[in-house]
Design a protein that fits this description.
globular; homodimer; alpha/beta; Rossmann fold
Chain lengths: ~230, ~230
């Protein structure tokens, strides 16, 4: 039975890739820079995203967020405190977001993509399933908290290998958990040579300014390449 | 395409359940008490398992472990320091262990189940996929670290609902991360009323004595019910 299952899975992925390409074209046409945040449960995605949305809004950036979870709308409520438009995608049993969920929730959101500069997608907390699903994002960001162990890049190769940026979170706890920074960086570099790494703390705000400046640069570069292309 | 995929998945699960029942019968016949440890990546499963194996061996218990990961044999090397027999199951892309992997690795291990009192299975770090796969265990243990947030039981309902015991890990960090014990217990109780909860720290050893005494009791109760049955 395995080959048949694999074949169907391949079909599901191909369909997802086509939808993701359509989304990517729409995002680029509207000038929306889109990020797909992936990580284990509990790395602090929501806390960091809330802080990011808040600071970016204060700087006049037009931001919105879609947030995926198996169950509960808790994260959407938390993110909404930033003042940004937010929609929860409850996936039921599904351990990842798929392009068609993004498409249908955007349609139902009533958001005009032309009114947005950045769209943040917070994926389901899972270091395996989301790696195969393109959501049409410009940047895939993998979060790794100092509390979960420096070896995670080696143990979840496809997630780290498919990401464009790594974010080390909860850096305020580094000392308490004896975080081995050199080992973490070496393992990230092994999995994805040249990966850009940020260190942040949603609690103290550390690293946020640099991170947000990076996002603005990335969007500007994308817009410039579009106008040339 | 969805119904067809679901149907095949159902077939895979039914096959897994049959194999798991076979394993359970073998474990019970041999008097091996078996645990399936599930959690997010980075909750400290391996550290706690290493400490558990070490202490149980010192008490004369005959213990062994199977440990699953997508990639690397790191965890088997770590666990082997306890002196217990250990085998790594590298799942490739698979985000969970399945009964047939347990069966084939036991066959290749050369272990005689009659020589074991406890078999520990450390699943792949994932709060979604492993929940549907019975491995023939007597007890499913879900680990939740104080660093990952008290809301996880609500967000990963099937994993917490299908577990028999919850282990709150890294309790030594509770203060540093402002762990809300009452909220964590309330969320666990909501998902699985009556769930037995332990608090442990592999670093300080806290909670280990109580946990190991509980395992010995559980095995004794299982053996007593078998001799009556």
């Amino acid at each position: 039975m395995k080959p048949r299952l694999l074949e169907i899975r391949k079909g599901v992925l191909e369909k997802n890739d086509l939808l993701a390409e359509g989304l990517r074209a729409r995002f680029q046409a509207a000038g929306v820079f889109t990020l797909n945040w992936v990580s284990s449960p509990g790395t602090g995605k929501t806390a960091l995203l809330e802080a990011t949305l808040k600071q970016m809004r204060e700087q006049g950036q037009r931001v919105a967020a879609l947030v995926g979870d198996l169950a509960t709308e808790n994260d959407a409520h938390r993110l909404a405190r930033s003042g940004a438009p937010v929609r929860q995608i409850v996936t039921g049993g599904n351990c990842h977001l798929e392009a068609d969920m993004i498409e249908s929730h955007l349609a139902r959101s009533g958001w005009d993509l032309n009114d947005l500069d950045f769209l943040f997608i917070e994926n389901v907390g899972n270091l395996v399933c989301p790696s195969s699903y393109d959501l049409g994002e410009d940047l895939r960001v993998v979060l790794l908290s100092v509390t979960e162990g420096e070896d995670k890049p080696l143990k979840y190769p496809s997630m780290f290998n498919s990401s464009d940026v790594a974010m080390i979170t909860k850096i305020d706890l580094a000392e308490a958990v004896e975080f081995d920074r050199a080992a973490a960086y070496a393992n990230l570099e092994t999995m994805r040579p040249g990966l850009r790494v940020f260190e942040t703390s949603a609690k103290t705000g550390r690293g946020l300014t640099e991170w947000i400046a990076f996002l603005a640069e990335q969007r500007a570069a994308r817009l410039a390449s579009r106008s040339q292309g």
